[in-house]
């Protein structure tokens, strides 16, 4: 290795430009092969360092979001869900509402894509440089209740509230006690008009007080959540049932084709 390269590597290490330090030869070769000017080469080297840092940060934040699976907004078939207004959908996908501390509430029966959309929005938010935390509602409530009983509620609240976007999936599947409803209220109130929430539920907002143990807290949660909010009530068929029906149809068509081929051969 040339003396100047050694010096450059040492400088990159001192400046904590680790990608440049570890890939100096290759980066310089690309710069030389492409006959870059000094300015172009500097922009290229720093640009590559930034690109790598962003990619690293993105993968750390993606893990930190605790998505149960990765779902993409691009894979969501809007034509299958005519109850979703395409304009509202585009607005939601723009993520502008996160910048304004607004919320998204997705309600509807099982299988209509609520979790898919919530994760898809969360994944897009991470890629846009935002911190996200996904919770199943039951796990979140259990975690808040545990912290409360151990006298550590404030700290837990602070920890959960750090995420720029908080996703609470499947609210309504498990009934909440009066205390649990109040704990959830504290979280929603803390984020109100500051940091966004996505909440999914199998029950329309008008029925939330049926599974929330404290009516006043339930009203207060809804009031804050829905004040600045895109609320989508998704109707229609379960995509899971649609997919399994399509699989069966495909299998039957294949069987018929094979039978037809066999009978032609036999004749
Ligand atoms: P929900 O949370 O409403 O019960 P999910 O989001 O879990 O439903 O969706 C069930 C399955 O169907 C998932 O695998 C999801 O990716 C898929 N799915 C649902 N709706 C659509 C859609 N419109 N386009 C593509 N896939 C969909
Ligand atoms: Mg779901």
How is this fold's topology laid out?
Blueprint: H1 3-14, H2 18-33, H3 38-64, H4 86-94, H5 96-99, E1 103-107, H6 114-127, E2 132-136, H7 137-149, H8 153-161, E3 165-171, H9 178-191, E4 196-201, H10 208-211, H11 215-227, E5 229-233, H12 239-266
Helix pairs in contact: 1-2, 2-3, 7-8, 7-9, 9-11
The protein binds adenosine-5'-diphosphate (ADP) and magnesium ion (MG).
Verbal overview:
- With 267 residues, the protein is of the alpha/beta class.
- The chain has helices at 3-14, 18-33, 38-64, 86-94, 96-99, 114-127, 137-149, 153-161, 178-191, 208-211, 215-227, 239-266; strands at 103-107, 132-136, 165-171, 196-201, 229-233.
- It has a five-stranded parallel sheet.
- The protein is flat and about 75 Å long.
- Adenosine-5'-diphosphate (ADP) binds at residues 71, 75-77, 80-81, 108, 110-116, 239-240.
pLDDT below 50 for ≥5 consecutive residues: which ranges? none
Q: Kindly state the mean pLDDT as a whole number?
A: 95
Beta content comes to 5-15%
Instruction: Kindly report how far apart the N and C termini lie.
Output: 76 Å
Q: Summarize the amount of helix as a percent range.
A: 55-70%
Q: What is the count of β-strands?
A: 5
The molecules bound to the chains, other than polymers, are: adenosine-5'-diphosphate, magnesium ion
- Major sheet: size, sense and barrel closure? 5 strands, parallel
| Overall radius of gyration | 26 Å
Order of strands in the sheet with the most strands?
2-3-4-1-5
Taken from the alpha-carbon principal axes, the silhouette is flat
Helix-strand category:
alpha/beta
Q: How many separate helices?
A: 12
* Run of helices and strands: HHHHHEHEHHEHEHHEH
């Amino acid at each position: 290795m040339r003396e100047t390269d050694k010096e450059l590597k040492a400088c990159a290490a001192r400046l904590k430009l680790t990608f440049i330090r570890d890939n100096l030869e290759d980066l310089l070769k690309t710069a030389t092969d492409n006959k870059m000017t000094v300015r172009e080469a500097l922009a290229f080297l720093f640009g590559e360092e930034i690109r790598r840092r962003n990619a690293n940060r993105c993968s750390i934040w993606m893990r930190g979001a605790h998505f149960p699976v990765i779902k993409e907004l691009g894979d969501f078939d809007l034509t299958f869900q005519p109850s979703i207004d395409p304009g509202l959908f585009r607005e939601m996908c723009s993520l502008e509402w996160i910048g304004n501390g607004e919320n998204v509430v997705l309600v509807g029966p099982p299988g209509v894509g609520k979790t898919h959309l919530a994760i898809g929005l969360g994944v897009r938010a991470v890629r846009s440089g935002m911190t996200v935390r996904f919770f199943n509602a039951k796990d979140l409530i259990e975690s808040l209740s545990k912290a409360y009983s151990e006298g550590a509620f404030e700290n837990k609240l602070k920890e959960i509230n750090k995420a720029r976007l908080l996703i609470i999936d499947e609210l309504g599947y498990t009934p909440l006690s009066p205390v649990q409803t109040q704990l959830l209220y504290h979280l929603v109130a803390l984020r109100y008009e500051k940091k966004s929430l996505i909440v999914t539920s199998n029950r329309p907002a008008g029925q939330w007080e049926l599974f929330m143990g404290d009516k006043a807290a339930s009203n207060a949660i809804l009031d804050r959540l829905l004040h600045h909010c895109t609320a989508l009530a998704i109707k229609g068929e379960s995509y899971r049932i649609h997919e399994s029906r399509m699989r069966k149809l495909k299998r039957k068509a294949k069987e018929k084709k094979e039978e037809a081929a066999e009978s032609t051969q036999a004749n």
